Amino acid sequence: MQTSSDEKVLIGSASFPKPFANGLEFNAPAHGTWNIVHIGFRIPGAHQIYICADNCLRGVVMTAAEMGELGRFSSVVLEEDDMTHSGRIEETTIEGVTDCLNKLSKIPPVVIIFPVCVHKFMGCDIGYIYRQLESRFPDVKFVRGFMDPVMQKRGTTPDQRLRKAMSDIIPELPLNADTVTFAGSDMPASANDFKTILESNNMTVKDTADCRTLEEYYSTGVSSLFICQYPAGLMATQAISKRLDRKYIYAPLSFSYDTVKKELSESGLKIPEGFFENGIRACEEELGRLKKLAGDTPVAIDYTAVPRPLSLARFLLDNGINVKTVYLDALDPAEEEDFRYLAENYPELVLHSTIHVVNRRPVRCAGKVLAAGQKAAWFEGTGNFVNMVEGGGLYGFAGIAEFIRLMEEAFINEKDLRDIIPRKGLGCRSCI
Amino acid sequence: MRKTYRILPVYTGDVSGAASALYELGGMTVIHDPSGCNSTYNTHDEVRWFDQESLIYISGLNDIDAITGNDGKFIDDICFAADKMKPRFIALANSPLPYLNGTDFKGICRVLEEKTGLPCFYVNTNAMHDYTKGQSEAFLSFAVKMLKGTEEKIRCGINIVGMTPLDFTSTDIYITDGHETVSNWALGTSFDSVMNAAKAELNLAVSSSGIAACEYMKDKFGIPYIKGLPWNGTVKEYMDVQRSYSKNYIVGEPVISGSVAAYIKETYGLDFNVIATTEITDGLLLGCDKRCHGEEEIEAALKDAETIIADPMVRLISPDRAKFIELPHFAMSGRLYRKQIPNLLKPEEYLYGIK
Hints:
The complex is a heterodimer.
Chain A: E1 8-10, H1 36-40, E2 46-52, H2 54-66, E3 73-77, H3 81-84, H4 88-103, E4 110-114, H5 117-121, H6 126-136, E5 141-144, H7 158-168, E6 176-183, H8 193-200, E7 204-207, H9 214-218, E8 223-228, H10 234-244, E9 247-250, H11 257-265, H12 275-294, E10 299-302, H13 309-318, E11 323-327, H14 336-345, E12 350-352, E13 370-372, H15 374-380, E14 385-386, H16 396-412, H17 417-420
Parallel strand pairs in A: 2-3, 2-4, 4-5, 6-7, 6-8, 8-9, 10-11, 10-13, 11-12, 13-14
Antiparallel strand pairs in A: 1-12
Helix pairs in contact in A: 4-6, 7-10, 12-16, 13-14
Chain B: E1 4-5, H1 14-22, E2 28-31, H2 36-45, E3 55-58, H3 63-68, H4 71-85, E4 90-93, H5 96-100, H6 105-116, E5 120-123, H7 131-146, E6 157-161, E7 180-185, H8 191-194, E8 202-205, H9 211-221, E9 225-227, E10 248-252, H10 254-268, E11 273-276, E12 290-291, H11 295-301, E13 307-310, E14 323-326, H12 330-333
Parallel strand pairs in B: 2-3, 2-4, 4-5, 6-7, 6-8, 8-9, 10-11, 10-13, 11-12, 13-14
């Protein structure tokens, strides 16, 4: 099947994994997802320095400002002369970063440097820049970030590479067989079966998304196992487990009972007796409540709420919830089985692009719509939505049950859409 | 170092400025950029999304298209969107990578005009300048491409030029000296309204962003212009109010700051010197005023300050002893102080603490 040039397509007619043709892009004003600034601040005490043009800089510096974190943020502005003089861009970067650090009252232990697309296109000698900075600031650990959205659509994204660079500074410490770390995500593990099982096994659980000090962050280097539950963090998790010669598990929030059972069973962890049965029962009870509440209310889901939106759509539809629309722009190859299943069994399910040129105004359906995710809420114009990004640290039966509970809550209590969704980085401090 | 910023944000950039200027004019603005510019613009530099739609897009440029200069895709995508959305015109804005590879935007505009039949113009941005430059280029390019001369004149008709939400929160301009507003460039306005601009007898540049378009209309249509905000219902050139050196400073965009300084001089008899921190300043400053570029220069210029009127973020680099009067500016502090931004045209609301 061909990709659709329209803004929406029925899943029964959609192509996989690219349902929509590329074109000009609109940006919906829903900003709960995390960007590289939010992610970088997950390293406690780290300072971020961006070296880029004014217009590009504006977005990141205001992200930091809105988080109340300007004290941990500096910038170096690139101008035309940096691009027309040979060697100038390296000089501006080195001297600019040096100047930024020297202006701080105390040199931070970790500094994340963000060169940009222009550095790449100028053939800038990045290695030379880091050698110079490391010789000038030998006590600083430099994390090699990049803000190059031109690479967003091909290969690894700046987000993925930043997560890897952030994990590269975690030192190799003597292995502690009883310590496990959740890694690669921005949302700390919450209603999460892995966490419950680890704690019932008397394991020490750490979480790179929830470290209060740099020492705590570094201490994850003792872990015997890393658990990644967010696709963009997989590369980082694979890299650290390879470097430290430790195991890792990749298990993003799935709404398939069988997948949860399989992933937990294959984890090598001791599963408490009756865990699966009790977990499924809890999910079914929540589902019963949701069905009773929502009835035939149309439901819309978007890709920013959970890493596997089609898994969620399939689960809800199979359980009698009236999912009408899934907002996404591309399909994760890991969701192919769910895609095929939905295409065959629910061919009328609508896939709706979030960036297509005609999408500048909310759909604003008549009647109540229950949404999962900020973009779905914005497009549907509904205040009845689950305000979540990246799966919210949920996993397993506890995660599924919690997600359904949040849908019930969203159905009952309308949120202030206009106040909530322009705020950036859900879970981060917002000063606006 | 001039190019480093320790604590202040940079001003809104030129690309966002261009998009802001054209937002209400019924066209389609396409930023040739990977992905950063649109998010920055619609998150931090644009407040109208919820209440008023506009056709602002990015091209979604990727590395291969940038390296190979794949203009064909850019053109096809614009044609597709124009066919779907039927804009009044197409405006193209540049960003760092197409700037580096020398993309021929004017040539692309010619191709687009042939293919779509729509007027198409290039707004000369590259993301390396502030919003005043982008707005100025956008207003000028729009005027050059779209405005037609006319014999018909509206007696005492006036165009307000250089007004966007990046500087202004309100379009309530109380003019009681007989002038009648013909068009506003470009807040609370429309395509049809600005297309009447050539009928005006006078242009009023309310910010530095409006100067270039006013100059063009002066040369092309013989419409004279003056600069400044109208105080007490009177349209007046702010540069005519003489001010002397002092240690009282007003920091910001020069026309607005100069107008506020003129108001203060005339109302309170106090001298305030402008520290112009945006790019377009030629002919907009008196001898006592100063142009500063970047955080270091602004901080140095404020060292001896007794009173400062500025965006609250400037307090971070101001001497503690100076009296500070907050005048939030959306193009600097963005959404942080948005709720506190006063109506610039009602100075009594934000200058009450000046005495």
